[in-house]
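Ligand: protoporphyrin IX containing FE. Inputs:
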Amino acid sequence: FRRRRNLPPGPFPLPIIGNMLQLGAKPHQTFAKLSNKYGPLMSIHLGSLYTVIVSSPEMAKEILHKHGQVFSGRTIAQAVHACDHDKISMGFLPVGGEWRDMRKICKEQMFSHQSMEASQGLRKQKLQQLLDFARRCSEEGRAVDIREAAFITTLNLMSATLFSMQATEFDSKVTLEFKEIIEGVATIVGVPNFADYFPVLKPFDPQGVKRRADAYFGKLLTKIEGYLDERIQFRKANPNAPKKDDFLETLVDIIQADDYNLKTDHLTHLMLDLFVGGSETNTTSIEWIMSELVMNPDKMEKLKAELKSVAGDEKIMDESQMANLPYLQAVIKEVMRIHPPGPLLLPRKAESDQMVNGYMIPKGTQVLINAWAIGRDPSIWKNPDSFEPERFLNEKIDFKGQDYELLPFGAGRRVCPGMPLANRILHMTAATLVHNFDWKLEDDSSAEADHAGELFGLAVRRAVPLRIIPVVKP
Ligand code: HEM
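Predicted complex:
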């Protein structure tokens, strides 16, 4: 059938379930192995969801750039139907007028250089809290669970930038609501849902995914709407008060100017997308950065020396100083190469039939770009499994969407709009942790084995949480 329709090759599918049994716990790794046999454009059947997997920079460029318009759609998981998010969200709407307006707001207002510079003071305060927490752990000789610390820091950095809010606290028994909601969303969206592969099951919601997603999305939207109302009322009551530097202020400006053909719902759902989109991704990346550095002490020392030469005795640098830290930049790129947080990016969908490399990709096909496989391809990277930031020092390759060998943020029309903020969060958090402390493993007996293990979910995280003790040099 495949040959008759000239579809991309792939493993033989079983009736009804297709290739589901072959997926395993780490689909990105399974797909990488299968693509060695079937090639960089391979097709599989996930239940009734026909899917094409892309595993080379050349094919990724065909999909994301040359035929970018055709492959600009998204397949929508059932969880995303929560609170009608699929009908109104920038992350899931098809490319069109509303989507374009929201991308424009992101590019020109929220993530502009000017806006990022203005909000950096908010982020510095949150990094100070991380520093204080690590200092307390150091004094008590206790290990930091880096994932937990990274999660709290990321949530606080995101909520400061978006709403000037504190999302959660270190060392507190009180779990503030934000943390609970984002953890809930990550769990629900990360769990495979059979209804996504067998649409006949959708109305029955057999795993309760839609019901739980409705509850979490609803809570988060209610909070965002509350902040928005509060800010609008505050502006009315204090027309001459100085404006805040967060995204919420931009949102109020947009609503009041009424320059776009968007409803308030579009903007509150946009804030939800930004908050959720930035949380798990940054958290897992920070844990991998620290994990790789602790397991590669010579690289850690090299980075420390660079930070010392630029920051001196300053504890938290300015974000503008990141441009003077080429080794730090190389470390972040190397982590993004080996551990892209979303190894298969966000699913794209063919909006019409399209021939690619001699094969037919029919309308409606889900297309996954295996950035993990491309990042570990030995024909592209020397020693692909080893952590060597030096490979980027004399190379111009970057992850901004122009170089198809390195695609953690995707590329083309739907490239991650939050990249400017993610860039700042990753560089600044890593710099703060590395510059102010030496780090040693709490238990190094099984460190090597633990380090390699991955856990597939909304983002691919370290399977065993990294626990390391901060030490302040006398
Ligand atoms: C390490 C951090 C991050 C990584 C690796 C990452 C990765 C990605 C990827 C792979 C995509 C899909 C791109 C494509 O289809 O070509 C994406 C889309 C998106 N990201 Fe990020 N992201 C990160 C941080 C952020 C942050 C901080 C935000 C917001 C503050 C954000 C918001 C979004 C949104 C809203 C989309 C959907 C865009 C659309 O469909 O038009 N991301 N991201």
